[in-house]
User: Which sequence fits this backbone?
């Protein structure tokens, strides 16, 4: 019995701990970006500097045979689909404190991975994850229970470096990605200040040496 408890504890300690948290807000239409965030990807213009896509990102306006526009969205939006190869797209970002996006017609076969340093996965969400949408999760294109803005925040000591969107069904639709840059940790600020101080000290010594020689 004791050995069994030890084994269970060891497994629990080995399991990864979530390094990001999320909340959602009702859409249909999009309720808007979070405080301190800036729109970085709209699909109506080039992405902001430092943001780039790999994989298979598709765009559309309105609805087509492969996807349905997020409720209330009359502009271009992005999507991934199981009919495409690959069926995923990854958005690489600068180091971020938070990121949000409008998730349209949420289905249980949609999957989002929030990426951290070195490509680690900080958080995995699907359309069926409690709190993402409001059941039934059936891809309804018009109601706020399955059209929502998702707000994701990195835990202390972590940064968000990207999002990976995957669909094993018809489509995973999203739009209006917004983000807030990570703020350097106090230790990082201290190192930066020390570095600037050393550079200034070296420059002063160099000037003093030039004056002495002249």
Assistant:
């Amino acid at each position: 019995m004791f050995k069994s408890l030890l084994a269970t504890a060891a497994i629990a300690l080995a399991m990864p701990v979530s390094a990001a948290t999320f909340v959602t807000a009702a859409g249909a239409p999009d309720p808007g970006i979070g405080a301190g965030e800036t729109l970085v990807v709209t699909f109506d213009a080039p992405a902001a500097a430092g943001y780039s896509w790999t994989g298979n990102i598709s765009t559309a306006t309105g609805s087509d045979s492969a996807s349905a526009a997020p409720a209330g969205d009359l502009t271009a939006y992005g999507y991934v689909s199981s009919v495409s190869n690959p069926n995923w797209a990854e958005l690489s970002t600068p180091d971020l404190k938070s990121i949000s996006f409008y998730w349209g017609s949420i289905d249980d076969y949609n999957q989002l991975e929030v990426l951290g340093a070195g490509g680690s996965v900080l958080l995995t969400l699907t359309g069926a994850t409690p709190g993402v949408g409001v059941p039934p999760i059936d891809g309804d294109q018009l109601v706020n229970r399955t059209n929502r803005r998702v707000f994701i925040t990195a835990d202390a000591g972590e940064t968000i470096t990207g999002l990976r969107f995957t669909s094993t069904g018809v489509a995973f639709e999203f739009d209006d990605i917004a983000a807030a840059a990570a703020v350097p940790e106090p230790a990082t600020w201290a190192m930066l200040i020390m570095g600037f101080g050393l550079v200034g000290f070296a420059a002063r010594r160099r000037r003093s040496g030039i004056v002495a020689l002249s």
User: Anything to note?
Assistant: The CA atoms of residues 17 and 190 lie 28 Å apart.
